[in-house]
Specification:
- The complex is a heterotrimer of chains A (427), B (403) and C (377).
- Chain A folds into two domains: 15-264, P-loop containing nucleotide triphosphate hydrolases (Rossmann fold, 3-Layer(aba) Sandwich); 315-393, no CATH class.
- Chain A has 13 helices and twelve strands.
- Chain A is an alpha/beta fold and 427 residues long.
- With 403 residues, chain B is mostly helical.
- Chain B has three domains: 24-89; 90-124 and 176-394, MetI-like fold (Orthogonal Bundle), CATH 1.10.3720; 134-170, no CATH class.
- In chain B, 65% of the residues lie in helices and 2% in strands.
- Chain B has a three-stranded antiparallel beta sheet with strand order 1-3-2, with no helix packed on it.
- In chain B, helix 6 runs antiparallel to helix 7 (216-230).
- Chain C has a domain at 261-277 and 287-350.
- In chain C, the strands form two sheets. An eight-stranded mixed beta sheet of chain C has the order 6-7-8-3-9-10-12-11, with helices on both faces. In chain C, strands 2-1-4-5 form a four-stranded antiparallel beta sheet.
- Classes of the chains: A alpha/beta (427), B mainly alpha (403), C alpha/beta (377).
- The interface between A and C is large, with 57 and 62 residues.
Chain lengths: 427, 403, 377
């Protein structure tokens, strides 16, 4: 069982996701033979309780939008199960499906694209009622007008068209539209990304007020940690289709457990123009979701990647070496090392660029590193990679971390597993 | 009336909201009734072969097809249009700003009405070869008919016949008044427009929507088929058909219609693909709305900027095609389309004249070709102008297709 | 490689070196269907050689039009109607188009927000760079290509020699932005004007782009950066200008402004970043006045004096941190506003600190600079 319950809650969670997977086949040729899969979402589990706000945070390629679409049944999962109010949402009868779509509202990403330009915003907000069979037009219009006022607009706005409104106003209308069927859950996909700071805060306050007043749960997708901090009770951090950490928002953002969360937090510049320590990932390239790294998916970029027990060099040396290995493996050769002519590069330059330690106690490592440096200097990247891969091994590339419960949340990192001799990052 | 409570969304009692799908829509009623009527009449005609639809109109197969097409257009184009106009009102100011559109619309309405009413109002005039080639009123012609009803002047062997109010626009080779020929041409044009609107365009639409929505193998298949079909030259198919079945408007529409809907289908497909990921489409789908609903309510209305001008373009193309084919001579002798009439003056055998096509005859009997040519041009231009006008009218932003 | 969080070398010398770019009372008007819009309504600032100046504001503040006025890349409906623009000694306003073209790219270059729109999709990136090089210098094509390669490396494109002939769509968003910077650098400009260059990319990619800009400014290029994100300002700026409704409302060195945001609008901006601050709820629509202090309809401290005439004169009391607000005029009482300044400063915000420092107190309060706004203490 993953995910913790908010205190005092008994009974089934409102939304329960288990091992969700969404894969897109890559096909070739006329007959569409499958030659690969994009693993957009690969084994996701989380719960959302009534009235709770859960944030899904991640960068591009993390799969968070796919999750949002799957929750609304815009896409069908390849694997796993989603339960809403205790019932699976796959294979629903028409009536069940109807009830489901009524209870789940959606706020899409770009407010300027969220509305049919040919319909008035009043018609747009009424659409959920119409689609769900609510025929009383007079009452419909009254409800829409009432809702407009409640989200901070005027009743005369219902006859206007979307292009007459600003982004913030459109997002208010979008919230009204998601609200009108009195849902139990709202899925909000980056609802504030396109908005200015003050408008953003206003919209979040509005959504928060509504959520609390009507006891609506919210799954809030975002890449913006400020927004998540302001709005969400709990947060789940996603990387390459997996959830790497969950927990209460203040805790995750102040004491992140997973190395990726730490990297993400430190990538955002501090609001205060004073400095603080930060952790860089080993490489910058986000791996291709069709070909994710083996074992722990973050291992090619993880500043806390674990050395094998037989490695005896210092942690700093280990980090430089492993950064060297993955950088070359991924192909991100730094610009200083690229040359046009066929002259070999000085070994010194390679060592300096990668900040490699001059001497290592371990002879095998030393030989491998020297060999790799030489190979790289001669332009043979493949050889360099082979040499480094052979000696710089890590359990993180062999073994997929399991979900561990830590401090009221979860984390997927080998450093938290009992049988691995490594302490959590940052200690 | 507990006013306040009713107006709050939380107070909707969803348990008691029944899913009342409207089965009876105005469109369906019109369609069903209209088709039933047409079918009944057609059956009666088939049995008794003794049907005069209105006045002296004896309907042929083409006419039945036209009538069915008319029912389709009434039900699925006119009814929604009237509903749209009633809801949004006709913006008088915009019409005043666009006199061209107004003129075009009026002209086309005139052509349509004239064409529709022609079998009712007019009957085929008898052949009067002795009245051939009368010039229009106010003009004179050196091609003198055997029996010139107007004033005859001039020297012997250089006689000139003047126009007469008996035939205000002149006559053609068979002594048919030009007025009749123009009206007949209008009828042919109307037939072409309505039949293609009713049958060809929805077909193109259906294929485009399915290909765009389903994607995958179905899309590959349909797109490949469209590609193959578009590369078959329609005119060859028409000529082959002509050899077997003789000339017919239906054949023309079948050949060209069947082979040129592909372009429109492709356009519709690309619009569907583009709109599929728009926010409001996603939202509607998340509501569980059916594909048909999403297409009809969201995708197609937002594609009008590209589709409407294309559609009118296609109609104009068909009209022109018919004229071209008729001009080449591949028409039914008794189908007096504008193209046929134009062709006549060029290919006319004029008594007493040297048969030299490049020279005099067409020039001397200019009204036979010019009048229908003017009508044809006006129709094509009006279709295009109206197409642009309708597109602009449908877009509430009043700009050109900003997405 | 420069670390985005390493201490920033201040390249701008605080002495009175001649400003590289000088903008005085700039006024730009946009013709709209509803009448002329005063997008830039009296904006003055300068950028010294090697300095990074950030203009921060929300959409509609006029910050983008300001920087497009500087490079004279305005939309056709917009027109500069007042003020002076000088680059070095030359007036940019008075220049005829041909001379302007030679300056653009050569001394002052523009980086746009959306690289998908600023990069030409039908030309390989290398060619776009070499074209720029050859517009401004008489470089033979071989040499230009070498230089293009160097530039691509300079902006951090991996495997540059393999990718120089790739098309823009073959790069990721972050890489595209780097290419755009490379093109901007091709003419070796003295000043780079960047309009929201880091929006639309992920946080980790943004961090690398910030590093890139840092390294460029470390080498002496001046940077005029327009953004809505206070964090970007914090990371890059030497000096910051806060714009609202076409006017500058506050300006000064970034630490000073962040330590003590004086203008109520700046304060509102900062508070919107603070998850725990209580904020005034703002009704969505307000008309913006055309005179006086433009912010007064939304300002909690608005008084009668705020209306009418030009925007309030800048008050700095001798420092380089200035604010356009009537409450800071010599005969006014700034107590309430200053109290808000303390509340809003990010140093006071509940920023979690992982490295164990305390949250508020100490450094944040800081030594009051000379001529601080005489607050009662």
């Amino acid at each position: 069982m993953t995910g913790e319950r908010s205190s005092g809650d008994s009974g089934t969670p409102l939304l329960s996701v288990r091992d969700l997977a969404v894969h897109y086949p890559i096909t070739k040729g006329w007959l569409r033979r499958e030659v690969g899969r994009v693993r957009a979402v690969d084994g996701l589990s989380f719960d959302v309780d009534r009235g709770e706000a859960l944030g899904l945070v991640g960068e591009s390629g993390s799969g968070k939008t796919t999750v949002a679409h799957t929750l609304c049944r815009l896409e069908e999962p390849t694997d796993g199960e989603i339960r809403f109010r205790g019932q699976p949402i796959a294979d629903q009868s028409t009536a069940e499906r109807r009830s489901f779509t009524r209870r789940v509202g959606l706020v899409v990403q770009d407010p300027h694209e969220a509305f049919n330009p040919r319909m008035t915003v009043g018609e747009a907000v009424a659409e959920p009622l119409v689609v769900h069979g609510f025929d009383d037009q007079g009452r419909r219009e009254a409800i829409v007008a009432d809702l407009f006022e409640r989200v901070g607009l005027s009743t005369t706005d219902t006859d206007r068209f979307p292009h007459e409104f600003s982004g913030g106003e459109l997002q208010r209308i979008a919230i009204a539209r998601a609200l009108i069927t009195n849902p139990d859950l709202i899925v909000a996909d980056e609802p504030t990304s396109a908005l200015d700071a003050r408008v953003r805060a206003d919209i979040l306050d509005l959504l928060d007020g509504i959520r609390r007043e009507h006891d609506i749960a919210v799954v809030f997708i975002s890449h913006d940690l400020d927004v998540v901090r302001r709005f969400c009770d709990r947060v789940a951090v996603m990387y390459l289709g997996e959830i790497v950490e969950t927990g209460r928002t203040e805790r995750v953002l102040s004491e992140p457990k997973h190395p990726y969360t730490r990297v993400l937090l430190s990538a955002v510049p501090a609001l205060d123009p004073r400095e603080r320590t930060h952790e860089r990932p080993l490489t910058d390239v986000i791996p291709d979701p069709a070909d994710p790294p083996s074992g722990c998916r973050f291992h090619t970029r993880c500043p806390a990647v674990i050395p094998d027990p037989d490695v005896t060099i210092s942690p700093e040396a280990w980090r430089s070496l492993v950064r060297f290995r993955f950088t070359v493996e991924v192909g991100e050769i730094p610009p200083e090392l690229a040359v046009d002519s066929d002259e070999p590069i000085a070994h010194d330059l390679v060592r300096r660029t990668f900040d490699l330690p001059e001497r290592l106690e371990d002879e095998t490592l030393q030989a491998a590193v020297d060999g790799a440096v030489a190979a790289l200097a001669a332009g043979d990247e493949r050889e360099a990679v082979e040499r480094l891969k052979a000696v710089l091994t890590t359990p993180c590339e062999r073994r997929e971390p399991a979900v561990e419960t830590v401090d009221g949340g979860t984390v997927r990192c080998l450093r938290y597993e009992s049988d691995i001799d490594a302490s959590p990052p940052g200690r | 009336m507990s006013d306040d409570v009713e107006h709050r969304f939380e107070n909707i009692d969803w348990e008691h909201v029944s899913d009342s799908r409207r089965v009876v829509t105005t469109e369906r009623v019109v369609f069903v009734c209209g088709m039933a009527l047409v079918l009944a009449l057609a059956l009666y005609d088939y049995r008794s072969d003794d049907l005069f639809l209105v006045a002296r109109w004896r309907p042929t197969f083409t006419d039945w097809v036209f009538l069915s097409a008319l029912v389709v257009v009434m039900a699925y184009a006119v009814v929604p249009l009237l509903r749209w106009v009633r809801r949004h009102g006709v913006r008088r100011s915009t019409l005043r700003e666009r006199p061209a559109v107004l003129a075009a619309g009026t002209f086309l309405a005139l052509v349509g009405t004239v064409g529709l009413l022609s079998p009712v109002v007019m009957s085929t005039p008898p052949l009067r070869f002795e009245h051939a080639f009368h010039p229009p009123v106010g003009f004179s012609s050196s091609v003198v008919p055997t029996d010139c009803l107007g004033r005859e002047t001039g020297e012997p062997f250089e006689r000139v016949c003047h126009g007469t109010w008996e035939y205000p626009l002149g006559t053609n080779e068979r002594g048919h008044p030009m007025g009749y020929l123009l009206v007949e041409g209008a009828r042919v044009t109307l037939y072409i427009a309505v039949i293609s609107l009713a049958f060809i365009i929805p077909f193109a639409g259906a294929v485009g929507v399915v290909a765009g929505y389903r994607g995958g193998r179905i899309d590959d298949l349909l797109s490949a088929y469209i590609d193959v079909q578009l590369s078959i030259p329609a005119i060859i198919v028409y000529f082959v058909g002509y050899m077997y079945w003789g000339p017919s408007i239906l054949l023309l529409l079948a050949a060209f219609g069947l082979l040129s809907w592909g372009g429109l289908a492709r356009l519709i497909r690309s619009e569907v693909i583009q709109r599929r990921s728009d926010g409001y489409v996603l939202f509607a789908r998340s509501l569980g709305a059916s594909e048909r609903y999403v297409t009809a309510k969201h995708v197609l209305p937002n594609s009008t900027n590209t589709l409407v001008p294309s559609l009118f373009q296609l109609l104009a193309l068909f009209v022109l095609l018919e004229a071209a084919v008729a001009f080449l001579g591949f028409h039914h002798l008794e189908t007096y389309s504008w193209g046929a009439t134009i062709s006549e003056s060029v290919n006319a055998a004029v008594e007493g004249q040297l048969h030299d096509r490049a020279d005099d005859p067409a020039y001397r009997i200019w009204w036979v070709s010019t009048l229908p040519a003017v009508a044809l041009t006006a129709t094509i231009v009006s279709l295009k102008i109206l197409g642009d006008g309708v597109r602009d009218a449908l877009d509430p932003r009043g700009e050109r297709g900003e997405t | 490689m420069t670390d985005s969080h390493a201490p920033r070398r201040r390249n701008a010398r605080e002495d009175d070196s001649t400003p590289l770019l000088s903008v005085t009372d700039l006024r730009t008007v946009i013709r709209t269907a509803e009448g002329p819009l005063h997008a830039v309504d009296g904006v003055s600032f300068s950028v010294r050689p090697g300095e990074t100046v950030c203009i921060v504001g929300e959409s509609g503040s006029g910050k983008s039009i300001t920087c497009r006025s500087v490079t004279r890349l305005l939309p056709s409906a917009a027109e500069i109607v007042g003020g002076e623009l000088t680059l070095g000694e030359r007036s940019l306003r008075a220049l005829p188009p041909e001379e302007l073209e030679s300056i653009r790219g050569d001394r002052i270059a523009h980086v746009f927000q959306n690289p998908q729109r600023s990069l030409d999709p039908v030309y390989p990136v290398g060619e776009q760079i070499t074209e720029t090089i050859r517009i401004h210098t008489a470089t033979p094509s071989e040499e230009a290509r070498r230089r293009a390669l160097t530039l691509l490396r300079r902006v951090g494109i991996p495997r540059a020699h393999e990718r120089i002939d790739d098309y823009p769509h073959e790069f990721s968003g972050g890489m595209q932005q780097r290419v755009a910077v490379a093109i901007a650098l091709a003419g070796e400009p003295e000043i780079l004007v960047a309009d929201e260059p880091t929006t639309a990319v992920d946080a980790t990619v943004q961090a690398r782009l910030i590093e890139l800009f840092r390294s460029l400014t470390d080498e002496g290029t001046a940077l005029l950066l327009v953004t809505h994100d206070l964090r970007i300002v914090s990371a890059l700026a030497d000096r910051v200008l806060v714009m609202y409704a076409g006017t500058v409302v506050e300006r000064g060195p970034v630490e000073r402004v962040f330590d003590r945001p004086l203008h109520p609008y700046t304060q509102a901006l900062f508070r919107s970043y603070d998850a725990t601050a209580d904020r005034e709820s703002a009704p969505p629509r307000r008309t913006i006045p055309a005179d006086g202090c433009r912010f007064r309809p939304a300002c909690p401290h608005a008084v009668e004096r705020c209306a009418g005439g030009d925007q309030p004169t800048f008050q700095g009391h001798g420092t380089d941190h200035e604010v356009s607000c009537v409450h800071f005029e010599p005969d006014a009482d700034a107590t309430a506003v200053l109290a808000d300044a303390r509340r809003s400063s990010p140093g006071r915000a509940m920023e979690p600190r992982r490295d164990g420092e305390g949250t508020q107190d100490e450094g944040s309060e800081g030594p009051e600079g000379p001529g601080a706004m005489g607050e009662p203490e």
